[in-house]
Design goal:
This protein is α/β, with parallel strands linked by helices. The strands form three sheets. It has a seven-stranded mixed β-sheet, covered by helices on one side. A hairpin with a 2-residue loop joins strand 8 and strand 9. The protein starts with a strand and ends in a 10-residue tail after the last helix.
Length: about 300
């Protein structure tokens, strides 16, 4: 993927293949999605290629609080303090929790190191885990961010992948920033679900996004999908991936397989793309949680306390 890349007259794709950031141009500019710290320096070079000065950027939009969607922003905020961090109001608690932030920073360090080892990025900035992460503008369902010149981001709540997950719709450009709410997709045809919070809410969120009829779908990973029919079909496949996974887990459970055994099979089958940067044990815990959420949706007792 050659970046930076113009997506619509007012939207540009930056970052790299695995971790995407978007420049949205109004009278003032916003960056949507914050990537991992390893893409910070390539991202700054891309802004320079576009002739975009930091002074023109006023808002940094975090669509959910997983480390691979927010870590460039801490560096930007430290260097350019006028940039306001925008995210779900649910993240007031997340961004002030030292234990959670410590885990976020550790995950970022591991993935950035793996990317450096593979020669994908030159290295990231040195970041020390702060006691809190800033949140300047809290968002909820229906919140709007007006960038001027007729460019407005309207936010919709799309939980399922995470409780705080948001999508942003720019009506003028007919672009939908879905973050991870449309499941995990890796070209050319790999789809798998990522409902780590709630399977049912993930389905509802996909239906809500599909109802918008967007012409462009801007994901947090692997770039952009263009064309209304392509976007519609992609979201339908995301929904089908959930249905297929649910059926798979039900079938394996009926055959007597344990949650751990199912999770191990899923780990071996689904740990592709940028997930290969994660330690194997971390991937196993992720897929085990996905299996657990699916069993909960099926009404099958996992013997574990709901978290």
């Amino acid at each position: 993927m050659s970046l930076p890349q113009q997506i619509t007259p007012r939207i540009y794709l930056l970052g790299n293949t695995y971790f995407n950031l978007y420049l949205v141009k109004g009278e003032t500019y916003a960056i949507v999605e914050g990537g991992v710290s390893g893409v910070t320096f390539p991202f700054l070079d891309q802004l320079a290629q576009l002739g975009v000065s930091p002074e023109s950027i006023t808002h940094l939009v975090i669509l959910h609080s997983h480390f691979d969607h927010m870590m460039v922003f801490l560096f930007l905020r430290e260097r350019f303090p006028w940039m306001k961090i925008v995210s779900s109001e649910l993240n007031r608690a997340v961004f002030s929790n030292e234990r959670i932030l410590s885990k976020i920073f550790e995950s970022d360090r591991r993935v950035t190191a793996a990317m450096v080892e593979r020669g994908l990025v030159p290295g990231g900035p040195t970041l020390s885990s702060p006691p809190s992460f800033p949140l300047d503008i809290p968002l909820r369902e229906g919140s709007r961010l007006d960038l001027g010149s007729g460019v407005t981001l309207k936010f919709i709540e799309t939980p399922g992948h995470a409780p705080d997950c948001l999508a942003a719709h720019e009506e003028r450009e007919s672009a939908l920033f879905c973050s991870d709410a449309a499941g995990f997709y890796a070209p050319p045809d790999f789809h798998r679900p990522n409902h780590w919070f709630s399977l049912a809410k993930a389905v509802t969120s996909i239906d809500k996004m599909r109802s918008l009829g967007a012409n462009t779908l801007c994901s947090g990973h692997y770039g952009v999908l263009a064309g209304k029919e392509n976007v519609r079909a992609h979201l339908e496949r995301a929904g089908k991936a959930i249905e297929d996974f649910r059926s798979f887990v039900r079938e394996r459970t009926q055959q007597g397989d344990s949650m751990d055994r199912i999770a191990q099979e899923v780990t071996e089958k689904f740990s592709r793309g940028f997930l290969e940067f994660f330690p194997a044990q971390e991937n196993f815990h992720l897929w085990r949680l996905l299996v657990r959420r699916t069993l909960e949706d099926l009404g099958i007792d996992t013997g574990e306390t709901q978290k």
